[in-house]
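Table S2 (text version). Query chain:
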Amino acid sequence: MPTKNLFIGTSGWYYKDWLGPFYPKKLPAGEYLSYYASHFSTVEIDSTFYRIPTRKIVTGWYQKTPDNFLFSPKFPQIITHEKRLTHCRSELDGFLNNISLLGEKLGPLILQFDYRFTPDYLPQLSDFLPQLPPDKLFAIEIRNRAWFKQKNFFDLLEKHKCALVLQDLYYMPKFFRITAPFSYIRLLGNWKQIPDDFSHVRVDREEALNDWAGRILAMLNEGLTIYAYSNNRYQGHAPTTVKTLLSKIQS
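Corresponding structure-token output:
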């Protein structure tokens, strides 16, 4: 079973609700990441969406994780949401320069857009993607289904070898299109079902996880590298979701 190109983890690792259910109860916050990395092979960095991390912080992430661990950082919202990919060269350079300190531990970088990012922004996206360094991996998440009708959008992603994020989000249709030599999956769920308390599973998604396990195995058999992440709002407790999905893939 080809699982060497499979990286599955959670979106973020700094959750006090995980103390007891996942982290040892008295584990200091500064040791969360090291403990997490002893259980999972990758993590999606949610905090980079809110601010560009300092070089000191990025170096700390590198030092606290083993050699084969991978980080998948989100682009800062000032680039994706506030400036909508325009007039943001300084922010882009600052983010890429700092996050590049992760070196060989840097996985795909995610541009996550909101519902208001419509196909009207295709020209801005077309101008932005050529600015990205070709030696790094990038994934694009859209949350407006109108993009799925835009052939030029998929042509653009394929041209730049950017992966379309395959998402499990309550108001978006399941849409599977491979646009790069790798696939990026996000299990997002419905925040209204789980607005708080990330200490335990609260939503049964057994059927959906069975489906994802089958799709992931099919993509692995096609030679794709898979990066998959679950947040807490998918079931209530992301570490359990990840362990469950892994067990289904490896069974």
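Notes on Table S2: The CA atoms of residues 103 and 191 lie 33 Å apart. The chain has nine helices and eight strands.
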